[in-house]
Each structure stands twice: as structure tokens, then as C-alpha cells.
Request: fold
Amino acid sequence: MQFSPPIRRAPDVEDDVGNLEPKPALAFYPIDPGIRYAWLLGRLISFFVLLFPGLILLVVALGLSGWARIALLIAVALMAVISIGQMIWPFISYAHWGYALRDHELLIRRGVLIKHIYAVPFSRIQHVDTHSGVIERSFGLANLVVHTAGTMLGSLTVPGLPKEDAEALRDYLSEVGHTHANL
Reply:
């Protein structure tokens, strides 16, 4: 006697994909605007940690002469330009984050220079977490982490959700993931 597991088959689709009706454009929910300031505060803390080595390099550079002085001054200027870019980046990247719920999947959108849209089927969700660091908690925000049954992108994060929304979405995705896994 040989055991054969039941096979779940997707419903038949038309052979000609040109006959399929397109779905209307899906609106993504934006993340909370407060996350920009949380990101900025985190970057400011990093900036001040890097400021002291930069000041030490500047003092050392002023005591040197010739090419060594020019090289250190260029390094300090480069650190300053990168720091300014880091302060502006949260305001640029905020508009490119979002999430959407479809019938059978969660979509996560991110990326300024390289755009990514991740589709996480509910049946692939293993578990869902929320977490928030000290800075996010002070703004009343949380991050939603969706752990999937995959190795390439084992977990995906939606940052900057209001704490209540993140918890509600976590509970919803946990329930839906459990329901879809048992079909």
C-alpha cells in the first residue's frame, strides 16, 4: 500500500494571459510621519558619536603640513558631506515606504534609488512580531516584522507604524497566516 499526499491545485487559469482583466491600482498605506524624526534622532546620535573622531582628525590635520594635511582635511570634509546627507535621507526615504493588503498577500514597498515591492503570501507567514526601540517608543511607533517560510528574505519589516496599528496588523496577519496555512 502506497501513501500519496493530497495535492492542492490552483484553479485553472486561461492559457492566454492577454484575456485576464487587470486589477485596479492598489493604494499603499503610508507609514507614520513621525518615523522621519525618529530616524533623524537616531542618525543625530550616530553623528555626535562620529563628530568627536572628526574633530580629533581636524586638530591633527591643522598640526600637519603638506599632503598629509590636505588628505586629512579632505577626509573631514567628506565626513561632513556624508553626515549632512544622512540627516536629509529620512525625509527623502519616508515617502517611498508603504504596505498594502490584498486578498491573499501582504505587499511591502520601499526604496528610493532601487525600488522594491515584496509580496508575502499569507500562506508563507510563519509568525509576526512587533518591536520598538527607545526612540520609536518615545514617538509611539512600532515596527512590524513578518517572518516567512523562505530563506532568501526570512523576515521583512514595515517600520514606523503607530503602536496600535502595528499590534492590530500583527494580530490580523497571524490569524490570516494561520488560516491560509491550514487550507
Notes: The chain has four helices and six strands. The first strand starts at residue 98 and ends at 101. The chain has two domains: 34-93, 98-181. The longest helix spans residues 34-63.
